[in-house]
Design a protein that fits this description.
The protein is α/β, with parallel strands linked by helices. It has one domain: Rossmann fold. Helix content is 34%, strand content 26%. A seven-stranded mixed beta sheet has the order 2-3-4-1-5-7-6. The relative contact order is 0.20.
Length: 178
């Protein structure tokens, strides 16, 4: 089994904010791969969608995970799922926003620090390692606002169009990353 974990904050208040691009990606992935609707799982404090997907003649059981712990406690949900399914950090791919990458760009990272991203740092702390795959989606570089305020801003309509394009590119990267 492989886990694809999108980071974000629960609730309508945070929909279409820069910090929720991980959740937005999982919604796109669920639709593209025809996975079932997300359902809340109390044991993992996460919304989950589970399905099978074939990539390069290999069939994968994939669990899409949206932790509902709020961003900065994402590692708690990830740790509980890994323990339950007896998986390792090698089995996860984390998708999250990155305010240090330009809007419309993304980067693949493995075995790298959190670079100040509190949700990623909480995963590192809970797993005891930073050696897992991540896709960092650029949400724009802003210097006039504190980081906490910037990432909680909603995207403009123009920015949403750019995000839709990069999420399509990230979808192709995910296929290569599994």
């Amino acid at each position: 089994m492989k886990l694809i974990i999108g980071l974000g904050n629960p609730g309508e208040k945070y929909k279409n904010t820069r910090h929720n691009v991980g959740f937005e990606f999982l919604d796109k992935l669920k639709t593209e791969w025809n996975f079932p609707i997300f359902e809340f799982n109390n044991k993992f404090n996460s919304e989950l969608s589970k399905g099978l997907y074939e990539i390069r003649d290999t069939r994968y059981e994939i669990l899409l995970v949206k932790p509902q712990t709020f961003m900065n406690l994402s590692g708690e949900a990830v740790r509980s799922i890994l323990d339950f399914y007896k998986l390792s950090p090698d089995d996860i791919l984390v998708i999250h926003d990155d305010k240090d990458i330009a809007l419309g760009e993304y980067r693949l990272a493995t075995d790298s620090s959190s670079a100040g991203h509190n949700g990623v740092q909480n995963i590192i702390d809970n797993l005891g390692t930073q050696n897992f795959k991540r896709i960092r989606i650029g949400v724009g570089v802003e210097t006039n606002l504190p980081a906490e305020d910037f990432v909680l801003q909603k995207f403009s309509d123009e920015d949403l169009e750019i995000i839709k394009k990069v999420l399509a590119d990230v979808l192709e990267e995910v296929k290569k990353s599994l």
